[in-house]
Amino acid sequence: MDASVSTLRDTAAWHELAERLRPETRCFVDGEFVPARAGGVFETINPATGQVLAEVARGTAQDIDAAVAAARRAFKSGVWSRMAPRDRMEVLYRTAHLIQGHATEFALLDTLDMGKPISDMLASDVPGAVRTFQFFAETIDKLDGMVTNTAPSALHYILRQPLGVVGCIVPWNYPLLMAAWKLAPALAAGNTVVLKPAEESPLSALLLAKLFLEAGGPAGVLNVVPGFGEEAGKALALHNDVDKIGFTGSVEVGKLMMIYAGQSNMKRVSTECGGKSPQIVLADTPDLDSAVAYAVDGIYANQGEVCNAGSRLLVAREILDEFTEKFRQKAKTAFVPGDPLDPRTTMGPLVTRAHQQRVLGYVEIGKQDGATLDFGGGVPAGLESGAYVEPTLFTGVDNAMRIAREEIFGPVAGILPVRGADHAIEIANDSIFGLAASIWTSDVTTAHRFARDVEAGVVWINCFDHGDMTSIWGGFKQSGSGRDKCFEALLHHTQTKSVWLHLGEDPT
């Protein structure tokens, strides 16, 4: 499905393309699209309209069994794990190229499935998925073993080998990109994979599997089973023939992943479970306007449905009033809810009506706890048919309030006044989460001390949400134990083996 540059700027043209879209909805197992074995389907809903987008195969434990069996056969055969590294690299490079070539279709699938603005898909998610597959393709021939220094009577070396079958469970907020983050390192390391996409946004994963096969990926290496978490996801995590689970999602389900691993075969588990990221703006910020712009983007981008959303704004008392006024003005123009198929839209609906109600419930909780609703807090006028929530700001927030402690996963920010760097770090660390944090300061000592002392896996200084594929992505505490994007993510999909060769020359 190709689109000209002029089409990409035309809302009507995007709606026409959406009408013509016929997504694949079956499971992808052993290189073929097949219906769910029990014949079940579920509806995926367009959150901008509330209308049914498609009926998707409802995978259950039977489908997970079939997908894992296909992945195990492919792994044992060596068709992927023992493929020459340069050949495996070429498959991932071709996959990246095909993702780019299907950018329009991927953009439509995720926009219609979970409400992300089409412009965001084209500017961020699709290019990000392309870069992810390119980066991990480039790592394949960089995996080294080691020869250690031993006595002359022995040769000792360490092999680094793939784990086997990896189960990937990804969230709905970045369907294509999160699938790429999980799949690319697992595949690059030589593993075979069973992917369970979120039931709210399963469609782009099925297209991705098709393109991997088209790129030369052998049948059975990448399998996709859509379905519900308590059915397909649980079955994948409990499966005794799965060697690792890579999970991104809620804390509650992340904990279940670890329990399921213990109840089954003690498989490895890596988790990324969200956060409550502080954005700290001190009185000596080098550029208050930039700090405000980053703060607005940090909470309202992607409708606030971001693991590292900077929802806690810790602002020095000396600049509190000025920051708040600038934040109000910037938020009014930067993020305006609208039709996600309109390239001018900067904020789409939340993923489901249920999630919309959950976020609106937190607005009420904030009021009840004594915070001041500064702006937003409701459904935008004229968009009542979709799952929309206005950009929302609370002032007068205390870190003991629920809106300051619990992950809302929506466009709701709270401003908390702080007395200085030490007070800000204390509040930042007073959380069960530790995914990301940022600080704005002109003092290099303060910046380094913050980076050292803040309990977060990702730290930004005088910016927010910057990085590239070399950047480690993962958190501390209950934000999880996994690492995505970086070379370390590749290593987490391997295991080491010690080989001791006795040379027959016993020491005298």
Distance between the termini: 73 Å
**Count of structural domains:** 2
Query: Do you know the CATH architecture of the largest domain?
Result: 3-Layer(aba) Sandwich
If you consult CATH, what is the topology of the largest domain?
Answer: Aldehyde Dehydrogenase, Chain A, domain 1
Please provide the count of β strands: 19
Main sheet: which strands, in order across?
Answer: 14-15-16-13-12-17-18
- Give the fraction of residues assigned to helices: 25-40%
Shape: globular
Total helices: the number is 16
CATH homologous superfamily classification of the largest domain: Aldehyde Dehydrogenase, Chain A, domain 1
Average pLDDT for all residues: 96
Structural class: alpha/beta
CATH class wording of the largest domain: Alpha Beta
Strand content: 15-25%
Radius of gyration: 24 Å
Tell me about the biggest sheet? 7 strands, mixed
Low-confidence stretches: none
Your description of this structure?
39% of the residues lie in helices and 19% in strands. The chain is an alpha/beta fold. It has 2 domains: 26-273 and 483-494, 3-Layer(aba) Sandwich (Aldehyde Dehydrogenase, Chain A, domain 1), CATH 3.40.605.10; 278-469, Aldehyde Dehydrogenase, Chain A, domain 2 (3-Layer(aba) Sandwich), CATH 3.40.309.10. It has a 7-stranded mixed beta sheet, sandwiched between helices. Helix 2 (61-77) runs parallel beside helix 8 and helix 10 packs across helix 11. The model has no long low-confidence stretch (mean pLDDT 96).
